[in-house]
Amino acid sequence: MADAPDASGTADPASPADETGPAVSPAASKAPGARTGARAAVPHAARHGGRPHAGRPTMKDVAARAGVGLKTVSRVVNGEAGVSSDTERRVQEAITSLGFRRNDSARVLRKGTTASIGLVVEDLADPFYSPLSRAVEEVARAHGALLINGSSAEDPERERELALALCARRVDGLVIVPAGDDHRYLAPEITAGVATVFLDRPPGRIEADMVLSDSFEGARSGVAHLIAHGHRRIGFIGDRPGIHTAKERLRGYRAAMAEAGLPVSEPWVALGPTGSDRVRADAARMLDGSAGTAPVTAVFSGNNRVTVTLVRVLAEPERRGRPVALVGFDDFELADLLSPPVTVIAQDPADLGRSAAELLFRRLDGADDPPRALSRPTKLIARGSGEIPPLD
Amino acid sequence: MADAPDASGTADPASPADETGPAVSPAASKAPGARTGARAAVPHAARHGGRPHAGRPTMKDVAARAGVGLKTVSRVVNGEAGVSSDTERRVQEAITSLGFRRNDSARVLRKGTTASIGLVVEDLADPFYSPLSRAVEEVARAHGALLINGSSAEDPERERELALALCARRVDGLVIVPAGDDHRYLAPEITAGVATVFLDRPPGRIEADMVLSDSFEGARSGVAHLIAHGHRRIGFIGDRPGIHTAKERLRGYRAAMAEAGLPVSEPWVALGPTGSDRVRADAARMLDGSAGTAPVTAVFSGNNRVTVTLVRVLAEPERRGRPVALVGFDDFELADLLSPPVTVIAQDPADLGRSAAELLFRRLDGADDPPRALSRPTKLIARGSGEIPPLD
DNA sequence: TGGGGACTGGACAACGTTGTCAGAAGTGGC
DNA sequence: GCCACTTCTGACAACGTTGTCCAGTCCCCA
Asked: Smallest CA–C1' separation from A82: which nucleotide?
């Protein structure tokens, strides 16, 4: 019974598709004047009446307006062949006059592909992750895909929520900077076809593509650099111990010390959250010496955030008298203009993002080879702070 | 009738939902080895064969597996009341054993709301926009919405493409840092119910909500600060003249100069892209004096990117002899650690993002009042570079 | 004038979910 | 034993699009 009136309804040029379905009656009753003419006259009146997109024209409306079939509109909208130029013109007119825009949700449902990828990072605002996000976005754009992204705030549960929400949206692929160390929750998704690339840190308890910087070698070479400049008591301040890169960098630190035959006093090593309070406390402890341990003459910093705090600590007036050498993992803007300029182990965040995204799209294009782990090299950039000799 | 064979099919753990629909035949022919058994045995073999999510279990599959009706599954998935705990348990079992995840595309189509908002900025990697994005994301998250974002690269056409693509995805709302100056293209979308807030710059030729920093007053006070420290020849280097904030800040500069009765030589004013080459050239021109114009003794910088380049220019050895005062619009990390520390007109990007997002969600919650323009104050932070006295 | 091919247009089902509505099963009172 | 009621369940349509398939229409050539 629904069909007959429905069909005649769409033949009507100004077809109120609304009125057939009971679902939209609230919207219809709230904005009854929303006829073609009235709509233009009162821009803000009915704007937020019902559901956000209630009352949007559909292809059916366009078809009725142009006096053609539904599929013909679809063809025009998608630039498919097989529509005479005259018909096309009529359809285009109807489209612009109704303000029609294709509903991609419906398209996605039908086609099974969303042309969007998800990105989960720790913090979108972190100067390490923002160029990385941008690079992923550029690659996505080049492939005609949109980017949906979120910050995990280094919380495994939030990472999981985000990743699964993205999967529920049926993103075509996922780039994840993992916060947690167990990603079995993604197994069904990967099996179902969500291409997944882990970035900066490896996946936990699951096999998948990954793109990592060589944290171990980077840290090793940075600490070796300090040793080469005469330091024998070197501190390490890094990110939380659960984080893979923190562990790897610590391992690099220990390796460099071991290679040089230098002992490591445990008070010289501090892992933890990168908030400035914690870093300041740990720095103070190792710089001033404590519990019978001699103070360090150099510090290796595990990342970006830590380095910036350390730069502040070392710049404090009371520390000026006894210069301490510093090498930091991650480059950062203006590092070269500080005094002393900061020696760093540089990664290229944009390159990491680009590599991960390209790997992802290779998968989406059908690459079937087993998961691979890409390692990107780091580069020591000597600027001054890492070349300060020890005082004693 | 369709149910009986279907049910038996889905009872099979590795149900080949593919093979029932003709829609997937092209995919099947593309990856002919993608047989059912192979999938389980070789996890990565058939993974990217067809459409990304082909063969995912649906509610129908879950229902068949649990021996219940479709709607009951829907009820369980959405935590609706009216399901006995025994039935719920059976459904939950079926869900986990099949690895079912609700398809939000279908949900969106049905419900008309996507629980996602779009954000268009100039450059996600810019240290001004990344905390802003993060703030928008936080607010979105608090409202249970995801964030889809993109960079316009300051290209109006690209901004338009992005914004319309987001509308086609039926985002519930849109936060835009506009690149262009004509947003009439958004009128049909706004009419259709896409809540839209413009951020950092006003919309062009359209009425809509906006959240702006007080660029005029900020620049005026910054230049007045330089004047108060004795400068009479002050340069202004800003962003491209098409950009609203650039114009406003220039206007503030001129106002401060006029208030002090100081003339402005046109070579002291330079607008253009923020790439370092252009800024360096303009800086050199006004610092060295040219064509009978005396060199400036202070520079006011129109933004973040320009300031950083100017800091580098002023730090060059050959410029050290003649210190030049500098005040920059936008604060930036480590500004206080440079020598001299940089005096800035600070905006709070996170606050801007938060305000815009909150305004957006107010609209989505039904607020119907006319579009409003929020102005956020700026704050002068004197650190040293802006207090350098003029040489002559 | 008729027949074949090329082109154009439209009816219909399907994608996976949720809202509506009605039916079935269970409970208690009389 | 029956009715009224509540609680639970499922059939069905609809959301707006695209793929399939068939039916016209037009033109050209024989």
From this structure: C8
**Above 80 in pLDDT, residue A87?**
yes
Helix segments in B83-208, DSSP class H: 85-98, 104-111, 129-142, 156-168, 187-192
Asked if A326 contacts A298 with a C-beta cutoff of 8 angstroms, the reply is yes
Q: What are phi and psi of A205, to 5 degrees?
A: 60, 35
- pLDDT tens for B121-166 read 999 999 999 999 999 999 999 999 999 999 999 999 999 999 999 9
Domains annotated on chain B, with CATH: 3-110 (1.10.260.40), 113-213+350-376 (3.40.50.2300), 215-348 (3.40.50.2300)
- How far is it, in rounded angstroms, from Cα A151 to Cα B20? 40
Instruction: Provide, in whole angstroms, the distance separating residue A68's CA from nucleotide D26's C1'.
Output: 19
The radius of gyration computed from the CA coordinates of chain A, to the nearest angstrom, equals 29
The pLDDT of residue A52: 61
Q: A166: which chain B residues are within 8 Å (Cβ-Cβ)?
A: 146
Query: Best residue in A77, A100, A105, A183 to probe B by mutation, most B CBs within 10 Å?
Result: A105
Mean pLDDT of A223-241: 97
At residue A37, the pLDDT reads 28
Selected residues 105-124 of chain B with any CB under 8 Å from a CB in chain A: 105-106, 108-109, 111-114, 116, 123-124
**Which whole number is the average pLDDT over B206-212?**
97
CA A152 to chain CA mean position, Å: 9
Window 12-31 of chain A: CB closer than 7 A to strand C: 22-23
Contacts of B137 in chain A (CB under 8 A): 124, 149-151
Interface of A with B in 263-282 (CB under 8 A): none
Query: Residue B78 CA to C29 C1' — how many Å?
Result: 36
Residues B230-289 pLDDT 10s: 999 999 999 999 999 999 999 999 999 999 999 999 999 999 999 999 999 999 999 998
Describe the strand order of the beta sheet including B195-199 as a list of residue ranges: A373-376, A209-213, A195-199, A173-176, A116-121, A146-151, B146-151, B116-121, B173-176, B195-199, B209-213, B373-376
